[in-house]
Design goal:
The protein is α/β, with parallel strands linked by helices. It is built from seven helices and 19 strands. Strand 12, helix 6 and strand 13 form a beta-alpha-beta unit. Helix 1 runs parallel beside helix 7 and helix 5 packs parallel to helix 6. The longest helix has 22 residues. It is elongated, with a radius of gyration of 21 Å. The two termini are about 30 Å apart.
């Protein structure tokens, strides 16, 4: 897989991060983030005797902890819930000696070696190698009803959850390529797909727009703004407001997919690492290497294309192998 895109030079005009004074703890391999990428990197790093320390971040287990059923991850023939699968990966990492800790990175200094990472604004870590697996956060509309039905009809990933709505009516909100892709994917599974967009034309590329408009079971609802997702235990409809007339209508759907983009959790690294225009960390070729020696990135923080648990785990494997080889070559 090729994840390398044109680089964006870090903005050196930004205010420098504050590194507190104090005694530092030194580690060979520091992993930031605990989703499939972080835990897989930890498993491989621990088995390579790198004595990895992993900080789980604000959401231990990552985005999958908000998912109910996971049926497309190899090794779980009957399916598994997201939290259970993440706990399994955590236990496997700990089995090989990974030091799993609560906390999140709040500042970094990658200008010299060893690299400096500040945890929770106070604890200083010196690391010979750093694996960044901080993931990305799906953007939502901000509706209270989104939170209510998260995992019970509301999703930000059609590839992950579309199967659960086979032969049912669903809605996708958004107007870019991501929304078009989600709608097209769901059209092959669901009975009908409503594509909700607040304007009278899609922002998606022309080829994607043409495909959407030619797909018989996709209906685009123009000038429509979701006001509320309704239901009892699960979603059974969405109330829409017309952006021009203010008129309210209701569509009957069992699934509501938000496709308005993701924000990679990379802000504190952008001073030192190359990122794209959205903030995804750029890696070199098919490796996990960044533009800074000894810093590696994996998972959704560097993958704007696939964003799946299995692909994140694969990049976590690559990051640990890259880190182990780099440490060996440099004698760190």
């Amino acid at each position: 897989m090729e994840f390398f895109k044109p680089m964006q030079t870090p903005d050196k005009s930004d205010k420098k991060q504050v590194i507190p004074a104090g005694e530092a703890e030194h580690v060979r391999c520091l992993i930031l983030g605990s989703g499939p990428a972080g835990y897989t990197a930890a498993i491989y790093a621990a088995r390579a005797n790198l004595s990895p320390v992993i900080y789980e971040g604000l959401q231990p287990g990552g985005q999958l902890t908000t998912t109910t059923e996971v049926e497309n991850y190899p090794g779980y023939p009957e399916g598994v819930t997201g939290p259970v699968m993440m706990e399994d990966l955590k236990k496997q990492a700990q089995r090989f000696g990974t030091d799993v800790r609560w906390g999140m990175a709040t500042a970094v200094d990658f200008s010299s070696h060893p690299h400096v990472v500040v945890i929770d604004e106070k604890k200083i870590m010196h690391a010979d190698s750093v694996i960044i697996a901080t993931g990305a956060t799906a953007k939502y509309l901000g509706l209270e009803s989104e939170k209510k039905f998260m995992g019970f009809g509301v999703s930000a990933c059609a590839t992950c959850d579309g199967f659960f709505y086979k032969n049912q009516d669903v809605a996708v909100v958004g107007g870019g390529d991501t929304a078009a892709e989600e709608a097209l994917y769901l059209s092959g599974i669901c009975k009908k797909v409503y594509l909700i967009h607040r304007r009278d034309e899609l922002r998606a590329s022309k080829v994607m727009v043409d495909r959407v408009l030619k797909t018989k079971n996709i209906e685009v609802l123009w000038n429509s703004i979701p006001k509320e997702i309704v239901g009892e235990q699960t979603v059974n409809g969405v109330i829409l407001t017309n952006a021009k007339t203010g008129e309210e209508t209701k569509i009957d759907v069992t699934g509501f997919f938000v496709a308005i983009g993701h924000k990679p959790n990379s802000d504190i690294f952008a001073e030192f690492l190359h990122v794209d225009s959205v903030g995804y960390i750029q890696t070199i070729g098919s490796s996990s290497k960044t533009n800074v020696e000894g810093i590696f990135a994996c998972g959704d923080v560097m993958d704007s294309v696939y964003r799946q648990a299995i692909t994140a785990a694969g990049t976590g494997c690559r990051a640990a192998i890259d880190a182990e080889r780099w440490l060996g070559e440099t004698g760190k």
